[in-house]
Amino acid sequence: MRNLRSIGIAAGLALSVSVPALNAFASEPTVPPVPATFPAEGKIKYVARDSILEFKALPAYHEPDWVTEKYVKAGKLPPVKDRLPKEPLVFKTGNMPDGIGVYGDTMRHVIGGRPEGWNYGAGQTQGWGGIDIGLSECLTRTAPLFQVEAKDTEPLPNLAKSWDWSADGHKLTMHLIEGAKWSDGVPFNADDVMFYWDDEVMDPNVSPLNGATQETFGVGTTLKKIDDYTVEWTFKDAFPKQHLYAMAYGTFCPGPSHILKPQHPKYSKNTYDQFKNAFPPEYMNIPVMGAWVPVEYRADDIIVMRRNPYYWKVDEKGNQLPYLNELHYKLSTWADRDVQAVAGAGDFSNLEQPENFVASLKRAAEPNAPARLAFGPRLIGYNLRLNFSANGWGNPDERGQAIRELNRNEDFRKAVTMALDRKALGDSLVKGPFTAIYPGGLSSGTSFYDRKSTVYYPFDLEGAKAELAKAGLKDTDGDGFVNFPAGTAGGKNVEIVMLVNNDYTTDKSLAEGVVAQMEKLGLRIVLNGLNGTQRDATQYSGRFDWLIRRNEQELTSVVQNTVQLAPVGPKTSWDHRAPESGEVDLMPFEKDLVDIVNKFVSSADNNQRASLMRDFQKISTEHVYNIGLTEYPGALIINKRFSNIPQGTPIFMFNWAEDSIIRERVFVAADKQAKYELFPEELPGKPGDKGPM
Ligand code: BQZ
Ligand code: CA
Predict the structure, then answer these.
(1) pLDDT digit string (tens) for 294-306?
(2) CA 630 vs CA 11, 21, 465: distances in Å
(3) pTM given for the model
(4) Before 187, cis peptide (omega within 30)?
(5) Counting ligands in written order, which one lies closest to the CA of residue 479?
(6) Which of 222, 546, 579, 585 stands 20 to 30 A from 287 (CA)?
(7) Confidence band for 12, pLDDT divided at 50, 70 and 90
(8) Atom of ligand 1 nearest to the CA of 350
(9) What is the mean predicted confidence (pLDDT) over 587-598?
C-alpha cells in the first residue's frame, strides 16, 4: 500500500499541468508489451496421447499384503481380482517418470477452503485444494494432457472408456467401464450417469459444483441410457468434439446414485435444500469412484482419506492403485499451504500467491530443502469483471441498476481500464520478472494466445478521466468522486461495491490496489470481502457490481470450460447471466463473442479454431469485456520423497496440478517412506459409518 500511495502523490503533483493540454496525449490502443522472461525450470516432456493409459485385462492382480491378510482372508473383502473391472484402466509404465511404484505412505495436503458437505452434484464444495478432484472421477480426463501437443489432443478416456460418433456427427455413443464398483462395492453403471444428468444437471433446482448446466454440453443436447454400460448423446451441432472436454473434471463427475437418489426431492419428501445438505462434512465414508475415501473429519483441523479397495485402476504389473495409502487435507489457509510445503510439514502446493514467491524460492534453494519448486508458464491471471446484467439478475436496487448501466457503457469501461497502472499492481504483489501487463482476455500462456490480436489500452490517467466525462460522470459536489447525473440514484457519488475472495492475500492485495487507483480516477470503490464459498454464492446469484476473480480454465486452456468464455447460455458466464425469468441481455459485441464460441465448439478444424480465438481475443479486449489486472507463472512445490511427478507439470492448465500429476500413480520409494499414516492398515467403513472399517 505504501508504494502505491507514493505513486499517488507523484501523480498528484503532475496534475498541476492544465488538464486539456494533457488530453492531447490521450493514449492510443496498442498491443501489450512482450512479457519479461523468468526462471522457469520446468520443461514439459511431450508424449503421444495414447502413451499414457489403456483399458485391458491383466493375467494377475495384486494389492498391499495387509489388505489380503486383514481383510480378504478375514472374509471382509472379496479377492482383489473380483474387486476390479473386467478391463481395468492400466497406466502405461513408459509414461511413469519413475516406473512401477510400491505401496505405502501419505500425501499431506493443506487447503484454505472448508467442506460444506459431500454432495458435489448438488453444488457443495469440499474445500477445494484437490479434495473434490480426488473424490470425483469423471467421464473423460484432461488434466494430464498438458504433456500432449495441442494438435493431437483429445480428452483421455476415464469412466467412459471409449466413444463413437455417428456418421452425421449428431450422436455420440459412449461406452462406460464395465464392472467397476463404488468404494462400498456397489456397481458403477449408466444409472449413476443418468442420475447426474437428469436429476442434477437438468433439474433447474440443482446446481452442481463447478457449474455444469444443460448449456455446458450445448443447447438442446440430450443424453439417454442404452444399457447398463452405454449412454448416447444427441447434439444439435455436428461433431461438437469440444464437449468431450466438458465431460471431464468439474462438469461431468457422477455421484453414487444409490446413496443420493433416495434423498432427492423427486424420490423423497426432502426439499432441495435438504437434499443438498443430506451429507454434511461429518458424514464419513461417502462412496466414491476416486482413489481415496473420507474416513475422518475434524472441523477446522483435518480431513483424512484412506485408500479405496475397489479402485478400478492398476499399473502394468497388475498392482491395484493407488500406491499411497492415505491423503491428508489440513484445514488451514492457502498462504499456509506454501509455507508448510517448503518447510516439509506439508507435501504439496500450487505456489500461486506472488507474495510468497521470494520466501518460497529462498527456502527451496537451501541445500537440505525438503521440497522441489519449479515454475511453469504464465497461466495465473486476475480479471476485474463487471456485472453486465441490466434486466434483473441479482435484483439490484436503484444504485446497483445505475452501476450496471455504467458497466455496459464502453466509455466507462475504457476509463476504468486506462486508469489501471498494471505495472504498479504487479509490483505490489512481487518485484521482479514474474508479473506481466495483462489487458484481459486469453492468458498469454495458452496455445491459442496471439499478442497481435490483443488490444491494450495503456495506463493513462488523464485519458481515463476524459473517458469518464464522456460517460456522463462529473464530480458535481467537488469531493473528488464523480457523481451520478442528477435524477439518477439521487445524484449521489457513484459508489461501486467490489466482491473479493478473502481467502487469498493476492485477491485482497489486488483489490486494495484497484481501490487506490480508482480513487485517483475519481471512482469510489467499496470492498465486499467474503470467504471463497460465500464469494461464489454471492457471485452466482448476481449480487455484485464488480468482482475480482482469478482466471479459470476457459482463459488458460480455452478448450476446458469453453462455454464460460461468453454468455452462451442463461447461467454460463461469470458476470452476465439471465434473471430468474428471462434472457441474458447481450450487448452487440457479446453477441459476436457468443457466435464465435459456438462456432469454436462445433469446429474440428484446428486452423479455424485458432482463427476464431484470434477474433475472440480482438473483440473481447477491444470492447473491454473483462478488465485484466495482472498475470504471472505458478510454481509446483512437491516434497522430494515422492516419485512419478511428471517433469514441468503446470500448476494450472486443463485443471490444477492435483489432477495433472496423476496422484493415484505417485509413490514413495520404500527407503524414503515416512510414518505419517494416521490409520495404518485400515480401510474405509460402510457409507455413514463413523470412521474406517
Ligand atoms: C487449487 C484448487 C483445486 C475454485 C479453488 C478456489 C475456489 C474456486 C478454485 C488451487 C484452490 C487452490 O482453488 O487455490 O491452487 O488447489 O483449489 O481445486 O480458489 O475458491 O472457486 O475455482 O479452483
Ligand atoms: Ca462527488
Answers:
(1) 999 999 999 999 9
(2) 21, 30, 22
(3) 0.94
(4) no
(5) 2
(6) 222
(7) very low
(8) 15
(9) 97
Closest residue to atom 5 of ligand 1, CA basis: 128
Q: Is 275 exposed, middle or buried (0-12, 13-18, 19+ CB in 10 A)?
A: buried
pLDDT at 581: 84
Give the C-alpha separation, 428 to 419, whole Å.
16
Residue 2: pLDDT band by 50, 70, 90 thresholds?
Answer: very low
Rounded alpha-carbon distances, angstroms, from residue 363 to 38, 372, 470:
18, 10, 51
Q: Please tell me the predicted confidence (pLDDT) of residue 6.
A: 40
Is domain 56-375+635-672 given the CATH code 3.20.20.190 in the classification? Answer: no
Q: Report in angstroms the alpha-carbon separations of 665 from 91, 613, 654, 691.
A: 8, 35, 19, 25
Query: What value does the mean pLDDT take over residues 588-603?
Result: 96
Q: Give the pLDDT score at 10.
A: 41
Please give the pLDDT value at position 41: 62
Taking the CA of 635 as reference, the closest ligand is 1
Residue nearest to atom 3 of ligand 1 (CA): 129
**Are residues 344 and 371 in contact, defined by beta-carbon separation less than 8 angstroms?**
yes
Q: Is residue 27 very low, low, confident or very high in pLDDT (cuts 50, 70, 90)?
A: confident
User: In the CATH hierarchy, which fold is given to the domain comprising 2-24+379-632?
Assistant: Dipeptide-binding Protein; domain 3 (3.10.105)
Q: Is the CB of 146 under 6 A from ligand 1?
A: no
What are the tens digits of pLDDT across the range 149-185? 887 789 999 999 999 999 999 999 999 999 999 999 9
Half-sphere exposure of 160 (CA within 13 A, CB side): 28
Q: Say how far apart CA 325 and CA 313 lie, in whole Å.
A: 14
677 lines ligand 1 (CB under 6 A): no
Distance CA(407)–CA(402), nearest Å, equals 9
Q: What percent of the chain has pLDDT over 90?
A: 92
The torsion of the CA quartet 31, 33, 39, 42, rounded to 10 degrees, works out to: 0
Q: How far is the CA of 481 from the centre of ligand 2 (A)?
A: 4
| CB of 536 shorter than 6 A to ligand 1 | yes
- What CA–CA distance (Å, rounded) separates 440 from 617? 9
How remote is the CA of residue 514 from the centroid of ligand 2, in Å? Answer: 19
What is the C-alpha to C-alpha distance for residues 564 and 246, in angstroms, rounded to an integer? Answer: 11
Residue nearest ligand 1's atom 19 by CA: 532
Can you read off the three cell numbers belonging to residue 171?
Answer: 450422436
Q: Nearest Cα to 546, choosing from 476, 489, 495, 595? A: 495
Contacts of 15 (CB under 8 A, 6+ apart): none
One-letter amino acid for residue 306 of the chain: R
| Residue from 128, 508, 538 to probe ligand 1 pocket by mutation (most atoms less than 8 Å from CB) | 128
> Domains of the chain: which residue ranges?
2-24+379-632, 56-375+635-672
**Rounded-to-integer distance, Cα 38 and Cα 40, Å:** 6
Q: Is the CB of 350 under 6 A from ligand 1?
A: yes
Residue 6: enclosing H or E segment and its boundaries?
helix 2-14
Cβ atoms 605, 599 nearer than 8 A? no
Residue 648 reports pLDDT greater than 50? yes
Residue 231: partners with Cβ closer than 8 Å, 6 or more residues away: 173, 174, 176, 190, 193, 194, 223, 224, 225
Q: How remote is the CA of residue 250 from the centroid of ligand 2, in Å?
A: 45
**Tens-place pLDDT, residues 367-402:** 999 999 999 999 999 999 999 999 999 999 999 999
